[in-house]
Protein: Wall-associated receptor kinase galacturonan-binding domain-containing protein
Organism: Acorus gramineus
Amino acid sequence: MNYLHLLLLLLSSLSICSSQSTLCRTTCGDIPIQYPFGIDEGCGSPYYRNAFTCSFSSGLRLRTPSGTYPVKKITYSPDPHLIVTDRFMWDCADASAYRPTRPFSLDTSTRFVLSPLNDFLFFNCTPGSVVSRPRPSECAREPDLCASACDPSAYLCRNLPNCPSNAPPCCAYSPRASESLRLMLTRCTTYTSVYWSSLDVGGGGNGAPWPYDRVPEYGVRIEFEVPVTIDCLRCMDSASGGACGYDTGSRRFRCLCREGNETVNCVDSGEGGAQRKTRRAGVVAGNRAELEKYLPGKKFDLPLVAMRFWKV
């Protein structure tokens, strides 16, 4: 191998390391990857940087301080959330043969939160170390007043999904944060998570009122924020055809285009480049009507959000 070849290889590797991808993958297996997420460096929102891994063998996995978890599905709108599974949690096949487990936790630097639609069921708790009592009816109206109680008479403990009638006893606990799970597992041997999955598949509904429009399923439901920016909306505009991303060094917004990265969108050039230097920041809270006011002629299917935008 001659010196010229070595130099070309070195320059190529430096170029790869110093820039981010201009094209972002939009799927991992059969799971769609949309803003604010990204599985390539520099794609999506920097709030979720390195939150996911994607491989042919393992599929899409969520990274957290407690480990990595297979992602079952992601819903982006109108109720942004994702579902993960944890093989260390108790399942029906375990019965009373309790396995060692680990408490689930989330990275507090991201915009992920545990959903209130999760029910955590604890097994084989040490008597006297856990406040075990039925939750009174007023807990539905004032859940914070009953947050410390683990309910042995909860519906799910009497009707464990897909389990035989001889399933071991448990108590249901609704933690305010993942720290509560760690504390409970110092007093109980194992636990599992059940979330309430909507039957409203495809938006058609099943005609049943709450709570009869949901069924329990094993897994952890995690809700997430969508940090919508005007720059990102312009970048994703059909005329622009870009993908929202960020500079991997400064974490500033970048519109990722096939021809290279831009600061606004993939069709701004020429005089627009000078205008970008005079941008000023602002913040607006609004719904899709207000988004359409800033970008007339466009329609957006977005939930109520807090948006940071740049005026040009």
User: Anything to note?
Assistant: The longest helix spans residues 3-18.
